[in-house]
Prior knowledge:
Helix 2 packs across helix 3, helix 2 (14-30) crosses helix 5 and helix 5 runs antiparallel to helix 6. The chain has 7 helices and no strands. It has helices spanning 7-10, 14-30, 43-57, 66-74, 80-96, 101-113, 115-118. By secondary structure, it is an all-alpha fold.
Amino acid sequence: MTSNLTMFERYGGFATVSKVVSDFYSRVQESDVASPFFAGSDMRTLIDHQTKFIASLMDGPASYTDEHLKRVHDRLNIDEAAFEEIVMLLTESLEDNGVEKHDVTQVCKKFAASKHYIVSGD
């Protein structure tokens, strides 16, 4: 019998996604590559938005348009190296919070598909 639950539902919804995102931003803040792009950011707001974004990548009840992603990231000048670091940190956070490997791959694949809306630096 196959489950009709979304990935978001299978992992416990916003409670789990919130843990993943909190873990992710702890790692980001420790990263010499990624942390400068988030310096001075309102972390509470950032965590709230990122929780919704990751939920959307897991087929949860949130969505972001490509235009929105571009608009909020344009001013940050995130470069290729930082994006790759962020993907790695997200992968680690998902894995360390009990997300199965094939689901981690799916989330990161969807995240990578948004790359050209997030990366704007050299």
